Amino acid sequence: KKPQTYKERASTCTNPLVQQLYKIMNLKKSNLALSVDLQNSQQILQTVDKLGPHLCIVKTHVDIIEDFSPQFTTSLRDLAAKHNFLIFEDRKFGDIGKTVKSQYEGGIYKISSWADIVNAHPVPGDGVIKGLKEAATGTNKGCLLVAEMSSAGSLAKSDYTKGAIKMAEDHKDFVIGFICQSRLIDDYNFVHMTPGVKLSEGGDSLGQQYKTPEEAILKRGADVIIVGSGILATDDPVQAAIQYKEAGYKAYEESLKN
Ligand code: UP6
């Protein structure tokens, strides 16, 4: 199948949230998601305000924030409106439907009230999706399935990954794509987002395995690259974000030539 531009994908995809994402990617010339893995809410907001113009998605781990308050998510939503990006809470839900439903809408974080996108492990079966979907009813929300992981020794492979694809196809109204390390379906309705991306290959001491933006997009078929420390653990995160955005966009343009 011929690769489509972000603009074409925005007009052919059926899910409104996926359309919105491709429109942002087209407008901002960015397939970069920032994984803003910081523990202080002011630091997160300041970073997102500076880097926002270069991002299509901001990915959070709200449960690592030490001074969380509901005001934080209100401010984050204000920044999403100001800079035009989607918010993805990387909660990786992985329990029975009833439990994930409460984890999604309840507790301190009330994730369903501010996150556009969440993700889930397919390990419990599709009850996990049904539970999340119930809490998201009537709103423009979506979920990614963790079909593969970037870490060494991941068990999410072969039949497990195939099961995740089937689950996504069975719940097209709510599942908008995958966290993955390779192209899983030739269908732009499922956005492929790849973490473990850095300009120089390698890993960390806890099993993370990095690939470059070019490899993620051109060899592995990612639509969106997810970058955390590659940007944050530098002296100039704004410059780094621009570098990743440009590398990611160049690889996308290259992919259109196929
Ligand atoms: N993440 C991975 N690999 C996966 C799924 N999720 O690294 O398979 C998440 C991590 C982290 C981010 O939880 O928030 O993506 C990667 O950060 P890094 O770029 O600093 O390694």
Automatic annotation (TrEMBL):
Pathway membership: Pyrimidine metabolism; UMP biosynthesis via de novo pathway; UMP from orotate: step 2/2
Catalysed conversion reaction: orotidine 5'-phosphate + H(+) = UMP + CO2
EC number: 4.1.1.23
Residue ranges of domain Orotidine 5'-phosphate decarboxylase in the record: 31-244
Positions bound to substrate: 37, 59, 150, 208, 228
Keywords (A to Z) from UniProt: Decarboxylase, Glycosyltransferase, Lyase, Pyrimidine biosynthesis, Transferase
Keyword presence, Lyase: yes
Active site (record annotation): 90 (for ompdecase activity), 92 (for ompdecase activity), 95 (for ompdecase activity)
Annotated GO MF terms: orotate phosphoribosyltransferase activity; orotidine-5'-phosphate decarboxylase activity
The UniProt record lists the keyword Lyase: yes
GO biological process annotation, one example: 'de novo' pyrimidine nucleobase biosynthetic process
Extent of the signal sequence: none
Protein family: Belongs to the OMP decarboxylase family.
Protein name (Swiss-Prot/TrEMBL): Orotidine 5'-phosphate decarboxylase
Lineage, opening ranks: Eukaryota, Metazoa, Spiralia, Lophotrochozoa, Mollusca
First-to-last residue of the parent protein present: 57 to 314 of 314
